[in-house]
Amino acid sequence: MDDTQGLATAAGTADPATGLRAVAALRKLVDRLEALQVRHARQQGWAWQAIADALGVTRQAVHQKHARRTRE
């Protein structure tokens, strides 16, 4: 079992302390993956609207969250 599967399993546990730690770790992982994929999309010329549509959020939300990061 890889770390992600272990986190997913831990997130479903009946022990709140373990479950909440796993949820926090998964949230951090998702944030890093989102930033990576937004950066890749921008490098390939994707418009902010196309990225927003793919993520199911508004253009303003994705731009506000990632615009600075993609310039770094």
Describe the protein in words:
The protein contains 4 helices and no strands. The protein has helices at residues 3-11, 16-43, 48-55, 59-71. 7% of the residues are buried. 81% of the residues lie in helices and 0% in strands. The chain is elongated, with a radius of gyration of 15 Å. Helix 1 (3-11) crosses helix 2 (16-43) and helix 3 packs across helix 4 (59-71). It is mainly α and 72 residues long.
Shape: elongated
**Largest sheet entry:** none
Q: What is the H/E order?
A: HHHH
How much is the average pLDDT? Answer: 91
Helix/sheet category: mainly alpha
| Helical run tally | 4
The overall strand count is 0
Q: Considering DSSP H and I runs of 4 or more, what fraction of the residues is helical?
A: over 70%
Q: Which radius of gyration do the C-alpha atoms yield?
A: 15 Å
Strand content: under 5%
Distance between the termini: 34 Å
pLDDT < 50 runs, ≥5 residues: none
